[in-house]
Amino acid sequence: MKVLILSTELLILLSVRSWLANGVASPLTYEVTDRITGNPLLCDRCPPGTFLRARCSSTKKSDCAPCPQGSFTELWNYIGRCLRCAVCGRNQVVKKECTPISDCQCECKPGYFYSQDYDMCVRHSECPSGQGVLTKGTPERDTVCGMCSVGTFSDISSTDQICTQHKSCSAAGLQLVLKGAIWHDNLCANCTDLKDGAEYLKEIVPAFFIHHKIKMKRLRRVVNKLPSDNVRKQEGTLELSFSELHSRIRSWVSSATSMQIRQLPAILIKLRASHTGEKLQKKLNRIDKNLLRLCQEMIGR
C-alpha cells in the first residue's frame, strides 16, 4: 500500500511538472468528493515546502504542514508526505543544500567530472607528456589537452600543467648541446665547466621513461636491472604501481654515476625494449658530439 501511495504522489508531481514545462499554470486547487455529502469539492493545494496533512471538507480547508527536516516539496501539491532529500553519490559533493522547497544539488568533487557515457563522476583526464592543458577540467567537463607547439614542452602527465617555453641557453651564456623536444627542455652546457655527456642526459632520463610508455612488466624488470653501487638491490617491484616505479627511477637517477647512466640504453636493449634503448643512445650520442664540437670551437676562438 505504501508503494502505491508513493507512486500516486509522484504521478501528481510529474503531472504538475508537465503543466509547467508546457507553459500551463499549475492550478492552486484540486477536485475531491466530499466523504459525507458525496458532492464534488475544490480543495486548496499546499504550497511548496509543505504537504497535505488532511484534505478539505465542506466545513474546513486543506490542512498543510511544513516539510520535516530532510524532505521537500518544490511545487504546489496535495501529496501526503514530502519527498526525501536526495543523497549525493560516489565522487560527488553537495553543490546546494536541500531546503523545504528544493532538493539538494550535487556535483562531482574536485578532480572529477560527470561522464554521460558512464553516468557517473570519473577522474579528469591527465594530459600526457608532450601535451599541455588547454582547458582545466570542471565538474561538468573533462580536461582539454593540446600538443605542445614548437619551442615548448611538457615533461609530466598532468591535469593542470600547460606547455612550458624551452629555456634559452645563449641568454645564459651557455651552449645548446641537445635541442628540446615536446617532452623535454633544451639541455645547455658551460664549456668552462665541462661535464660528462651522461650528466646532461640525466636531466631528461625521468621524463624519457614517462614519455616513452614502457609496459608495466618490462618497466619493473628495468628498475630491477638499474646498476647501483649499493650491495643490496632494491626489492619488491612486483607490487609497485607505474607512479612508484617512476619514483624509483627518479631516485636512482639522482645518485647514478655517469658510467651507470651510460649503461642504461644497453639495459633497455637487453630487456627487449630495443627501440626505446636506441632512442636514448641517440640522445646521448648527440650530446657527446655537440659537446665535442661546440666546446672545441669555443676554445679555438
TrEMBL record:
Q: Which UniProt keywords apply?
A: Apoptosis, Disulfide bond, Glycoprotein, Repeat, Secreted, Signal
SMART domains linked to this entry: Ephrin_rec_like, TNFR
TNFR-Cys domain spans which residues?
66-106, 107-145
Q: Span of the secretion signal?
A: 1-21
Question: Localized where?
Answer: Secreted
Q: Name one GO biological process term.
A: apoptotic process
Tell me the InterPro entries matching this sequence: Death_3_fish, TNFR/NGFR_Cys_rich_reg, TNFRSF_decoy_receptor
Disulfide bonds listed in the record: 67-82, 85-98, 88-106, 127-145
Pfam families from the UniProt entry: Death_3, TNFR_c6
First and last residues of every TNFR-Cys repeat: 66-106, 107-145
Q: Name one GO cellular component term.
A: extracellular region
Report which superkingdom the organism of origin falls in.
Eukaryota
Tell me yes or no: is Nuclease among this UniProt entry's keywords: no
Name of this protein: Tumor necrosis factor receptor superfamily member 6B-like
State the organism of origin.
Answer: Poecilia formosa (Amazon molly)
